[in-house]
Write a structure and sequence with these properties.
Layout lengths: L1 E6 L4 H10 L12 H14 L19 E4 L4 H4 L3 H10 L7 E7 L2 E6 L1 H15 L12 E6 L10 H20 L2 E8 L4 H12 L10 H16 L3 H16 L2 H24 L6 E4 H17 L4 E3 L2 E5 L7 E5 L7 H16 L12 E6 L3 E2 L15 H16 L6 H21 L7 E2 L2 H4 L7 H17 L16 H23 L3 H20 L7 H24 L9
Parallel strand pairs: 1-5, 1-11, 5-6, 6-7, 12-13
Antiparallel strand pairs: 2-4, 3-4, 8-9, 9-10
């Protein structure tokens, strides 16, 4: 079983857990396609030795070929100029059922694949498999994915949205790839931030606990508590004392904590439902706090940790990480304390991590992600300059409705489109770049029907649906593929052909932005094609071929958006 963490930063505790469980990363093979395989086979035969498939490239200009093999690496071994090597290789390459022709361009051997084979194989594959196109079946592979991790007593903001959306998309991609995925969450429902909140509530708050929008209310109190804390050094000591009493089980404090915690969690479940996130089992910091302390003390007894100025620490200098505090000198727990206990708990429940004495260690993967920034700069719950999820959702919904208000649609259809566009804009923006990079979230840009946005792809899908409706969705599979002879059609088919490989790369690297990029390329190419070539026309044979192509585009867009947890509508 593989354990995947979706977290905003790599915690030192994960390094420490790896040390405890003696685990290693496995090498991952990247995907290949049938044409690359054939080219490798031909080149290996010509050279008399095996060629690495990773050396096969895609030329920047399709007029130069579909694939290319660079000869630079052979120059030293063969003691020839790369250009000469390319020319000599060309003489040994003959066309076959996949390769139409090859030519040497400088130090490259460029290959042109047979268009009829490409079109026939890809379009029939998409048509026959439909929503399962690109899906794989891998038996015996299970992933325990830990994500969706907000803190109670703080507001759920757009930074948390990125965590939730990223976790759900990674889970869907892994499931589509063939893995069994168990979704769990680990929420911060206790700790220093809760102690600060409880301290402020009891000492300064004069109002009552609201019945609705508890998350927003609780987040506001946390901001006020953070501001108040800085006014007097004594307040920090008081907060530490509240923290200590909470961990010791003070009845009154625990009663207040439980009541407000449950109200916050109720709000979280509502948000998860709106975001279409599925969680099998929630874990909470409160349930691993006490076990964590016991484990840390046990580690000290075993010599895996030590006392340092009253605190218990792990010496990670040999890993270049310095000293890692596992338990405060006043006995209070830290993130590290609870994370180690969580690892043992998951080991017990899911057999994900083996106990130290086991020889075979499980695999850990960490999916880190950057901050979500505003145009004005960094967000902070302490400072209160955050965009709350509720506010963002409502703003996107309103703007999405404004964009479609004048269209002649019934109220139910408008509501469906409004939701799809708003959440599509939100989710796509969160996923449309490498997770390690920071995001500057601009609602106006996210909702645009032009550019690299979710609504742009949704509109492309609706456009394809509109074309198919005019054709009465009577898609024929027996068409004359030779009639699809322009560069845009070939480019579309090549993008469709690459979709299963894109899914595999996204699954093995935990990178949903690869799906986003593929969908954008497909949408942009199809829209260029739509404006340049007439799909519905008098030439029925050509029309049938182009309708099949349109159907395949529509299908793959829907498949890809589903992996991003974005719903489609057949009209806009």
């Amino acid at each position: 079983m593989l354990l995947v963490f979706v977290r905003s930063y790599i915690k030192l505790v994960e390094i420490f857990i790896r040390k405890l469980f003696n685990q290693a990363y496995a090498n991952i093979d990247m995907p290949i396609d049938v044409f690359k395989k054939e080219i490798v086979k031909v080149l290996s035969h010509a050279l008399g030795k095996e060629v690495d498939i990773s050396t096969i490239e895609v030329p920047p200009d399709p007029l130069m070929g579909d694939y290319a093999f660079p000869c630079f690496s052979l120059a030293k071994e063969m003691k020839k100029n790369p250009n000469e090597i390319a020319q000599s290789l060309l003489k040994k390459i003959k066309p076959n059922k996949h390769i139409d022709s090859a030519k040497a361009i400088g130090p490259y051997v460029n290959f042109f694949v047979k268009k009829d084979v490409l079109f026939n194989n890809v379009l029939l594959d998409v048509f026959l498999h439909k929503e399962k196109y690109g899906k794989k079946k891998i038996k015996g592979k299970t992933v325990l994915l830990e994500g969706w991790q907000p803190n109670t007593h703080k507001a759920f903001h757009i930074g948390h949205v990125r965590n939730a959306v990223l976790g759900e998309s990674v889970a869907r991609i892994l499931e589509f790839y063939g893995y069994k995925v168990i979704r769990i969450s680990y929420m911060g429902d206790i700790g220093a931030h809760v102690a600060k909140w409880v301290w402020y509530f009891n000492k300064f708050y004069k109002g009552s606990i609201p019945k609705d929008n508890v998350g927003k209310w609780a987040g506001n109190l946390y901001t006020l508590a953070s501001v108040k804390e800085e006014e007097n050094e004594v307040y920090k000591d008081e907060i530490n004392e509240v923290h200590k009493k909470l961990e010791e089980g003070d009845k009154e404090l625990i009663k207040l904590w439980k009541k407000t915690r449950d109200l916050c969690l109720k709000g979280f479940w509502k948000i998860y439902k709106e975001l279409d996130c599925k969680i099998k089992d929630p874990y909470f910091e409160s349930e691993v706090e006490t076990p964590g302390k016991k484990i840390v003390k046990n580690l000290e007894e075993k010599g895996l940790a030590k006392y340092d100025e009253g605190a218990i620490v792990a010496d990670l200098k040999e890993y270049g990480l310095g000293v890692f505090v596992l338990l405060k000198n006043n006995g209070a727990s830290l993130y590290s304390t609870k994370d180690i206990a969580l690892a043992y708990l998951k080991s017990k429940n899911y057999k994900t991590l083996e106990i130290i004495k086991y020889k075979d260690a499980s695999k850990l993967r960490h999916v880190s992600y950057g901050l979500v920034m505003l145009k004005e700069g960094k967000m902070s719950s302490r400072e209160g300059n955050i965009i709350l999820y509720d506010d963002l959702r409502d703003k996107l919904m309103k703007k999405a409705l404004d964009a479609i208000e004048e269209r002649k649609l019934d109220a139910k259809k408008k509501g469906e489109i409004m939701g799809n566009v708003a959440f599509g804009a939100m989710k796509f923006t969160m996923l449309n770049q490498d997770s390690n990079r920071e995001i500057i979230f601009d609602p106006e840009q996210a909702l645009s029907f032009e550019g690299e946005t979710g609504p742009y792809i949704l509109y492309t899908y609706a456009r394809a649906c509109s074309i198919l409706r005019k054709y009465k969705n009577n898609v024929k599979v027996k068409v004359d593929f030779s009639l699809l002879d322009n560069e845009e059609e070939k480019k579309i088919v090549k993008i469709l052909a690459e979709f299963p490989d894109v899914v595999e790369r996204a699954a093995l690297s935990y990178k949903p932005h690869l799906i986003c990029r593929g969908l954008l390329d497909l949408s942009q190419t199809f829209n260029e094609y739509y404006h340049k070539h007439k799909i519905l026309q008098e030439d029925k044979k050509l029309e049938e071929a182009r309708i099949l192509l349109t159907f395949c585009v529509k299908n793959v867009i829907k498949n890809g958006l589903s992996l991003l947890s974005i719903k489609v509508a057949d009209e806009m």
